Q: What sequence folds into this?
């Protein structure tokens, strides 16, 4: 019997340097996200340099935070192997950690540039989802982040997956025995693709308020992550109360009809998958934030409103800017003729330019 061929994790070598597919795929995801942000940013008057600088600061912040998040949950291992902490090319980064790092960087960067955090993260939300959609294929090449055991029949006949995916899902353990696994990378990638289309549609709607596209991204991604995470065999976990573990299992139960049992989670390691719990909390928090921000008036601006730079208020642009009254040009102030008082003869006097125009 011929065993399925496993893909090589190294794309090519340059002397002593090995270039891994994992890094190439992550870089491609970041580039696609950047291009999407630049394209949408043009509608709001943001330059490409704005997003290039954001990427320059944001990507390292995201990678560092993602790795730290993963290492902290696996500290029992990395405390004994500190030299492996920086080896991210072998996998081992957490998306929620990456989001934490990127958001912290975003808060600082957007404020330094004079823009509302909520307005700019809305523009960037589809980029985040696109990057995750592509980045998951790095896990595929590394043969990691897969789900629990399944059958070749399920993969080929029920899911109708191509050979190169089915073959890569045949994982051989240290003892030399192999078994097929759920391609959770693919489930999450496809879920992200559908979410990306939804975000593209949502951002054209007049009812959407500032910050709500970002929350929609979090809600959509976290719903998928909650159900997909339970299939994995490498989840970060902790020892939580029994009622919490039972609650998460109960919420996941409908997935048994499609995928069967959950992926194995070593009870000595923990009984609550951290990403699953975090996904549930994010869904609830995002819904609450949308409601609260609308009720207390914090979400007055709409996604399609002109984007205002609070350090330079005249620099505003947006998809509907053409519908707004035009502000007088600074170099050529509007000149109005003052009325002539009755009984007097005066030359026309220009009024003081009006500085109260709004965009």
A:
């Amino acid at each position: 019997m011929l065993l399925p061929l496993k893909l090589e994790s190294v794309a090519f070598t340059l002397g002593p340097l090995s270039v891994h597919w994992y890094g190439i795929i992550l870089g491609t995801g970041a580039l696609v996200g950047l291009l999407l942000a630049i394209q949408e940013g043009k509608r709001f008057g943001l330059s490409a340099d704005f997003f290039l600088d954001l990427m320059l600061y944001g990507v390292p912040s995201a990678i560092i935070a993602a790795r730290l998040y993963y290492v902290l949950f696996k500290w029992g291992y990395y405390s004994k192997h500190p030299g492996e902490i920086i080896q991210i090319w072998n996998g081992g980064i957490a998306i929620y950690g990456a989001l934490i790092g990127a958001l912290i960087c975003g808060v600082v960067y957007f404020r330094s540039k004079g823009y509302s955090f909520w307005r700019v993260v809305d523009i960037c939300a589809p980029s985040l989802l696109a990057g995750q959609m592509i980045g998951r294929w790095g896990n595929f090449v590394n043969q990691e982040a897969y789900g629990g055991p399944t059958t070749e029949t399920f993969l080929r006949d029920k899911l109708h997956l191509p050979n190169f995916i089915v073959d890569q899902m045949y994982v051989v353990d240290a003892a030399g025995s192999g078994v097929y696994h759920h391609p959770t990378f693919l489930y999450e990638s496809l879920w992200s693709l559908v979410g990306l289309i939804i975000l593209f549609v949502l951002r054209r709607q007049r009812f959407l308020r500032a910050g709500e596209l970002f929350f929609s991204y979090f809600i959509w991604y976290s719903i998928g992550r909650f159900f997909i995470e339970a299939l994995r065999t490498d989840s970060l976990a902790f020892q939580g109360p029994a009622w919490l573990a039972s609650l998460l299992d109960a919420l996941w139960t409908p997935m048994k009809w499609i995928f069967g049992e959950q992926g194995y989670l070593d009870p000595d390691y923990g009984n609550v998958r951290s990403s699953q719990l975090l996904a549930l909390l994010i869904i609830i928090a995002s819904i609450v934030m949308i409601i609260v921000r609308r009720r207390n008036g914090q979400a007055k601006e709409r996604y399609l409103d002109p984007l205002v730079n609070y350090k330079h208020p005249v620099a505003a642009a947006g998809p509907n800017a053409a519908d707004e009254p035009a502000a007088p040009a600074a170099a050529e102030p509007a000149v109005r003729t003052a009325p002539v008082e009755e009984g007097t003869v005066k030359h026309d006097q220009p009024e003081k330019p009006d500085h109260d125009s709004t965009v």
